[in-house]
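User: Can you help me understand a structure? I only have the sequence.
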Amino acid sequence: MSLPAEFHEIAKRVNNWGRWGGADEIGTLNLITDAVVREAVATVRTGRRIPLALPLRQDGVQSGLIPGRINPLHTMVQINQEIFGPDTVATSDDAVTMGLQASTHWDALPHVSHSGKIYNGRPAETITAHGGARFSSIATVEHLVTRGVLLDVARARGTDRLPGDHAVTPDDLTAAEDFGGVRVRAGDIVLVRTGHMRLALAGDRQAYGYPSPGLSVRTPEWFHARDVAAVANDTLTFEIFPPEIEDLWMPVHALHLVEMGMPQGQNWNLEALSEACVQEGRHAFLLTASPEPFTGATGSPVAPVAIL
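Assistant: Let's start by predicting it. Here is the structure, written out as tokens:
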């Protein structure tokens, strides 16, 4: 089934192809300027640090819903081995096999394509089995530090967790701004809390995966109007799943990654941050969230930290 006219109309309104030149590979991350970072650093008042990553573990959030996305398989390859001879210093080493998007992660721009294209109009065929993504791989994101803004949609609606059929709308995002006393501005990374992570933290992987609240296809225009650098949330699929428009699967991914060139993150644990923001009476902070630089990869694990 081809993408509907409604999707293509939104795509035209949010498209950033050529905005930063035909050779650009990082899209909206260009909005994180030195001035933006200096202003982000100025948000730090107490130095309180809130980790936002889930533990990398074999019984992680992946349940098989997304094919091939396996939880981390950790193996010891050396255990107290005296590799330089008897009675020398012994070493222990590890190896891991995992889906790069298995836990808390960033999606790189070529993570999805549509109509045969990835960001900036490049052919989807530039992603190959052996080379991975030739353009805009996660390794092009050399650093990611800026102001973070928590839009706590769940708290703004007076609940701990949004129901699985809730599509987060532009009105929800604006209401969360009002709740937090904050305004999203150019170069920010927006963290959207639904509270759905509570299911994963309670060990219910199936309920965490499906059905899931998430961003509506109406929200990319909201982020585009505010020149947001990236968006992450606390769900497995990022956007509402199943989709709000019948048979239109993953439209928000396509609009963000392909049309806007805006990275997005999933499986971020925003529960402690939600509590801290209420305690401190502010919802903006310094956020450090640089991905691992896997050459050619379409995503990467990340261990983000919010600094209040």
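Now, to help you interpret it: The chain is about 20% helix and 20% strand. Residues 188 and 228 are 5 Å apart (CA to CA). Let me know which part you'd like to focus on.
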